[in-house]
Amino acid sequence: MNSTMAASSHRITMGPLVAAIDQGTSSTRFLVFNAKTAELLSHHLVEIKQSFPKEGWVEEDPKEILQSVYECMERTCEKLTQLNIDISNIKAIGVTNQRETTLVWDKETGEPLYNAIVWLDLRTQSTVERLINKTPGRNKNHLKHKTGLPISTYFSAVKLRWLMDNVDEVHDAVVSHRAMFGTVDSWLIWCLTGGKSGGVHCTDVTNASRTMLFNIHTLDWDPELCTYFGIPMEILPKVRSSSEIYGLMKLCSSRKCGALSGIPISGCLGDQSAALVGQMCFQEGQAKNTYGTGCFLLRNTGAKPVMSEHGLLTTVAYKLGRDQPACYALEGSVAIAGAVVRWLQDNLGIIKSSEELEQFAASVGTSYGCYFVPAFSGLYAPYWEPSARGIICGLTQFTNKYHVAFAALEAVCFQTREILDAMNQDSGIPLTQLQVDGGMTSNKLLMQLQADILCIPVVKPSMPETTALGAAMAAGSAEGVSVWSLKPEDLSEVTSEKFEPQINPEESEFRYARWKKAVQKSMNWETTEPVGNGNGETSIFSSVPLGFYIIGSILMLVGAKYLAGNN
Predict the structure, then answer these.
(1) 253 vs 371, higher pLDDT
(2) Which of 51, 157, 159, 308 could form a disulfide with 212 if both were Cys (CB 3.0 to 4.6 A apart)?
(3) Within a 10 A sphere around the Cβ of 227, how many other Cβ atoms?
(4) What's the mean pLDDT in 225-252?
(5) CB half-sphere exposure, 164, CA atoms < 13 A
(6) What is its EC number (predicted)?
């Protein structure tokens, strides 16, 4: 009896809770926060499998993504019950997601019509080149005045175009008016609010602004852009603000998380916008950098979109309410950050974990003149160069895996320096410190390297889940929920750790200059039109430098064998 009374009194003092679904490129999380203190009470994480059917292709299974959300919700509900926290205290759920990743599904059956094409995917490179060649002066920024974006493989419109052109099921569903398009947020909200039985087909302004079909000035789908890409507007989700009630959770009562049924989904932000909100960058000029699969630096530019002259994107930062103004941001996007760790682990087998990468790098404390440009998906900001490919240069006989590990961490920092420089040039007001978040920030060596390479302090919050926090804040503050106040005086004080630069600026500049030289070497690597080998597949010799490299390597091996035989 006493334990029950203690548990119930504990539940009473807890106050309103807000949950967040954080569906990222490599994992899904479900997290529950205290709306009054922003304290993280419980969470669960499930990793997501990526598939690479062909070189440059990156896909994920939409059903696996949805299932991972259910699993995270169920496990978190179990953990809350063990903590004697009443699940009925959860008053709202927010959604944050990997952006640009493109899905099409059948609204009658609820079935996905193809795998999700992930933002990193390069299969649309020839489509992008064809589109750029059609523009006056072959200008990749031809649509930037409306979209804030260059024409690139990165954004959803070209992925959707590819699906319509190359997947019969998608084409047929579009023709027969059964197709629904969405980014990951739309897929999840539609499924969680009923799916084929009345699910809500919507997105928010931040996710919509990453499709190339959205006008960032009118804050709606643009008929001219849709015509340009040949996309029928009827398949697009309705665009809503980032903070309003979209619909109620509809879950089978037999599920362990069935108690979440009826809770409003009332927040939706693309992951980088959510991190900006979670870092409380509500003032013009405030910025944050998130280190996840990629690296994303966003700077709040206020109520007016600012067009970059230095290769950055103009994007919608957030719109926190139906009647609230939209806020904009400049963004520097780097494709490969945490993904380089996965590559060293899964592809090369150099490391067994991200912790081991930090140990390896720390054991040498230098790359010994080795530079690693991880342009696996071309180069994003500030170059927007899809023909670039990854290179490791400056190798000597002395170089070992520990130096390569250090060079991989430095690469993340150099890429951030490039986008920070571009941002400082665009705004004219240099950042005096950098707020950071994301999975890689647990690597203290990386954070110190970042401060050294930027020559400014790097500030990391003690609670690293700022992306999920941002989605929870948007959901909890929505009209009709109102359990989370976003007034400056009500926002909780954030504890953080600060990393100060420890090397002299001259050394930092020298290393940065060498990095820039390495970047130039990675450019114009991939030939634009692949050469077929007769059966519709691309030959390895379609890349001229790669062809020379392979032929040269074979000749050297033959020569070495011949010499060995003569000795």
Answers:
(1) 371
(2) 157
(3) 11
(4) 93
(5) 19
(6) 2.7.1.30
Buried-exposed string 111-138: b where 16+ CB fall within 10 A, e elsewhere: ebbbbbbbbbbbbbbebbbebbeeeeee
- H or E stretch including 129? helix 125-134
User: Assign residue 406 a region: left if phi > 0, alpha if psi is -120 to 50, beta otherwise?
Assistant: alpha
Please check whether residue 157 is in contact with residue 212, taking contact to mean a CB–CB distance below 8 angstroms: yes
pLDDT tens per residue, range 30-46 = 999 998 888 899 999 99
Question: 290-522 falls under which CATH superfamily?
Answer: ATPase, nucleotide binding domain (3.30.420.40)
254 pLDDT band (50/70/90 cuts)?
A: low
Q: Yes or no: say if 213 and 236 are a contact pair by the CB < 8 Å rule.
A: yes
- 226 and 209 in contact (C-beta within 8 Å)? no
360: tokens are: 């390896």
Task: Walk across the sheet containing 295-302 and list its strands.
Answer: 313-318, 327-334, 295-302, 287-291, 434-437, 458-461, 496-499
Q: Which residue has the tokens 């909200």?
A: 189
Nearest-angstrom CA–CA distance, 273 and 137:
33
Dihedrals phi, psi of 212, to nearest 5 degrees = 75, 10
Q: Which helix (H) or strand (E) holds 298?
A: strand 295-302
Structure tokens at 552: 């040269």
**Torsional sign, CA 66, 337, 347, 349:** negative
Residue ranges of domains in the chain: 290-522
pLDDT at 239: 97
